[in-house]
Amino acid sequence: MSDGSGIQVTTLDNGLRVVTDSMAGVETVSLGVWVGVGTRDEAPEVNGVAHLVEHMLFKGTPKRDAYQISRQIEDVGGHLNAYTTREHTAYYAKVLKEDAALALDIVADMVQHASLDAEELTKERTVVLQEIGQAEDTPDDIIFDHFQATAFPGQALGRPVLGLPDIVERLSRDDLVAYVQGHYSGPAMVVAASGRIEHARMVEMASDMFGALPKPQAWTQEAARYSGGDFRDERDLEQTHVVLGFEAVGVHHEDNYATQVLSTLLGGGMSSRLFQEVREKRGLVYSIYSFASHFAETGLFGIYAGTGPDQVAELVPVVCGEVADLVGDIREEEVARARAQLKSSLVMALESSMARCEQVGQQMLVHGRPVPTAEMLARVDAVDVAAVERCARRMLDSVPVVTALGPVTGLESYDRIRARLGH
């Protein structure tokens, strides 16, 4: 199947989907495996197993030990990496076009034949615990885990991707094997490639290399239930880190792009409302921005700011005022500017084979098809003032999330913040 843009899709007999995005003007290939599972597909007693599996797949197979995996890809000047999110896991590489077969063979070997050696697991568990400790020591990083947990308390979608230390310490080889066998099946996976690659060749290689995938097993993903709430962690830091957030729409919702336009308008650049009012006019922060995260059936809209302990009492009321003022005060010219910013970021990403590979891989997992660039740009163009205002009203109707780390005594009460937002 082709969408007319050079992107082609083939589904193999085992359910594995192969998607390619041909780029004639480059000499490289970016490729990888995208798996449609992540942290929210874990049972609570094994929180962190998806991320630990990602680490362990680099630690060797019967065909290659850990050193050979890294050595073989670097012998040809390539790069190999992976990541885990709450809904996806990815293993990917970038190489010269003549080394695409080697890169795919390494990724296929890791994904299907990882030894998950118990001795290696003992060492890698320690590495992940160090990673958790490093995140805890980085307030402008860990605050987003607390934000997610406060928005979705006691739920899979609210648990940290890295896992909790006491759980990670207990994860066994059997836990990892069970997770891989239960989730890494053909229908849950996409092989994606972008760059100087022929689709037929990629399909041929994937057919040869991915014959050992386990059969699909049924599992039920826990539905998300947004809650909202307040979390504060008093720490001896130079700055107070604050995230104020609201419920947003899921990735399939018709207002998905309108939410992104709203985020750009409110806090997406130096011309945004928050940057101009909070940093330029008042000098309250160095860093402030807004963001929107879209999950399968829900989402989050957030505003991050870092400020001094003496400024936080002024900062939060100003931010609340900017959010409350959105309704009834959105102008066409700022919507047009936000649309232009969003469209340019979409188009600029097309210049990178890795970004295009990741885009089609994720689109296949989320939408079941590649989404043409023209379609995405048209959806951005269709966002008008009414759509942005609709998103702002929906956001303000939800119970807010307030998350703060650092010297928090100057931050006004949660009830006062709610009142400023009309609750």
Describe this structure in words.
With 423 residues, the protein is of the alpha+beta class. The chain folds into 2 domains: 7-211, Cytochrome Bc1 Complex, Chain A, domain 1 (2-Layer Sandwich); 229-421, Cytochrome Bc1 Complex, Chain A, domain 1 (2-Layer Sandwich). The protein contains 16 helices and 11 strands. It has helices spanning 49-56, 66-75, 100-113, 118-136, 139-151, 165-168, 173-183, 199-209, 256-267, 273-281, 312-324, 332-349, 353-367, 373-381, 385-397, 414-420, and strands at residues 7-11, 17-22, 28-35, 79-84, 89-96, 189-195, 229-234, 240-248, 287-294, 299-307, 401-406. The strands form 2 sheets. The protein has a 6-stranded mixed beta sheet with strand order 1-2-6-3-5-4, with helices on both faces. A hairpin with a 4-residue loop joins strand 4 (79-84) and strand 5. The longest helix has 19 residues, at 118-136. It is globular and about 60 Å long. The relative contact order is 0.16. The mean pLDDT is 96.
Count of domain modules: 2
Strand content: 15-25%
Biggest β-sheet: strands ordered side by side in the sheet = 1-2-6-3-5-4
Output the CATH homologous superfamily of the largest domain: Metalloenzyme, LuxS/M16 peptidase-like
The helix count comes to 16
The low-pLDDT segments are none
Radius of gyration: 23 Å
Secondary structure class reads: alpha+beta
CATH class of the largest domain: Alpha Beta
CATH topology of the largest domain: Cytochrome Bc1 Complex, Chain A, domain 1
Backbone shape: globular
Q: Largest beta sheet, briefly? A: 6 strands, mixed
| Helical content class | 40-55%
Cofactor: Zn(2+)
Domain Peptidase M16 N-terminal: 17-163
Pfam family, one: Peptidase_M16_C
Family: Belongs to the peptidase M16 family.
